[in-house]
Specification:
About 15% of the residues have low confidence. This protein is of the alpha+beta class and about 260 residues long. It has a 5-stranded mixed β-sheet with strand order 1-2-4-3-5, with helices on one face. The chain is globular and about 50 Å long. It has 7 helices and 5 strands, in the order αααααβαβαβββ. The structure holds zinc ion. The site of zinc ion has 4 residues, from β2. The site of zinc ion (ZN) has 4 residues, from β2.
């Protein structure tokens, strides 16, 4: 969520103007700081505790700001697709931004500007996770994301993308709570639960969902629209009691009892 260091900046500037303006007595003290949580008028570029964008991003833009945006809109790739998190703003990213904008009632022009960024700020916590999901939910195996098939940093980064996909799916399903029973597994955690030898849980890409109020089949069906290339649910061996969703390369969907 947003924080507002800009308020401090403005009050500091006001003090500097008073000190050097020449028309005010030397004893003038700086203007009082705004009350905590207040927003100075003219605060057009809200700062955020996780990541703050400036300006606009559009097709042709590139770099870390684009990569950060791609993580946030990873849940809007269109049915059966997945967008690259590569810092290159191409047609697929533009389409994802447009879908995100539509989902939240913003003008859907595929250009990420203040309205889009402000919506993202509302949706994210200071650790960059979406407000309705946590790293702890996505890792019930260990505390440091180590021991998987990729580095701890990569596993954690993959889990962040997974959470933004879940946030998109949650919103599309009416913003009702979703139940996440696990995500990342080290190789040993995966073995302990009898996971597949190539399980995407060991990469941080996967999440296992409880039925919640949605039901396993509705979750599996919705997951197809939000960047999950692997969906396993009722009717697939071992998946009658949860719906497994994951990103990563290669599509495999199977939930025969749900028509998938
Ligand atoms: Zn799973």
């Amino acid at each position: 969520m947003r924080s507002r260091p800009i308020g401090l900046l403005l009050s500091t500037l006001a003090g500097a103007v008073l000190a050097f303006g020449g028309t005010t007595a030397a004893s003038a003290s700086p203007a009082p700081a705004p009350a905590p949580g207040s927003v100075p008028s003219g605060d057009v570029g809200a700062a955020d505790g996780c990541y703050t964008w400036s300006g606009t991003l559009q097709e042709g833009s590139s770099g870390e700001a684009v990569r950060q945006l791609q993580i946030r809109v990873a849940g809007y790739p269109g049915t059966g697709n997945q967008i690259a998190i590569d810092g290159a703003f191409g047609p697929a990213t533009k389409a994802a931004v447009s879908r995100f904008q539509s989902a939240y009632g913003l003008a859907a022009d595929g250009i990420a500007g203040p309205a889009t960024f402000n919506k993202i700020y509302q949706l994210q916590d200071d650790d960059c996770t979406p407000v309705n999901f946590t790293y702890a939910e996505l890792n019930r195996c260990n505390s440091d994301w180590s021991g998987g098939k990729v580095s701890a940093a990569t596993a954690r980064a993959n889990a962040l993308v997974t959470m933004w996909k879940l946030q998109a799916m949650r919103h599309a399903m009416g913003d009702r709570p979703m139940t996440v029973n696990g995500g990342f597994r080290s190789v040993s955690c995966n073995s302990a639960v009898g996971g597949a030898a190539n399980s995407r849980h060991m990469y941080g890409h996967a999440a296992d969902l409880g039925a919640g109020s949605q039901g396993f089949c509705a979750l599996a069906q919705a997951a197809r629209n939000h960047g999950f290339t692997e969906i396993l649910g009722p009717g697939y061996p071992g998946h009658n009691d949860h719906t497994h969703v994951a990103g990563g390369s290669g599509r495999f969907w199977s939930a025969p009892s749900c028509g998938i």
